[in-house]
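Entry for the shared binder. Reason: the reviewer on the internal report wants the predicted structure included alongside the sequence.
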Amino acid sequence: MSEQTTPLPARETDLTPRPIAAGVRIGHVHLKIADLDRALAFYCGILGFNLMQRYGTQAAFVSAGGYHHHIGLNTWESRGGSPPPPGTTGLFHMAILYPTRRDLADALRRLIEAGVTLDGASDHGVSEALYLRDPDGNGLELYWDRPESEWPRTSDGELAMHTRALDLQGLLRELA
């Protein structure tokens, strides 16, 4: 699948910031990977995504809940490749939002059972997150959002996010 570069029409520069439409959301992420079967074993076998469509050994689309795809995996420019070295630009991580704390706990259980190592685990006040890398070195954040009414706020009502250690044993107790 190739995309052509199309020049945008010239227009006057307007540097007045305008907010993006409130309904905009991230639809999907497409990752360059080295080995499709290895990536599918991770995303479907460990994390539990559903395989929606596969294009031989070149690409696959996986989803949660039957959507056409949340994650595209492809080897078009990366078959047999290695992750970019530290100090280069690119995607820092993609974040996968779980609907409940219990669902995040189930994801942690799956990772532990598969022997996947976490890079970190944080309580941000607004959310709880697990950080790891997929088999191709792509950064992942698996998280759930607390209800907005529970988000930490300053006395002025501003958001007061933080980064504290996440109690993994406490998270796993959600499964009891």
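Summary line for the report: Residues 101-114 form the longest helix (14 residues).
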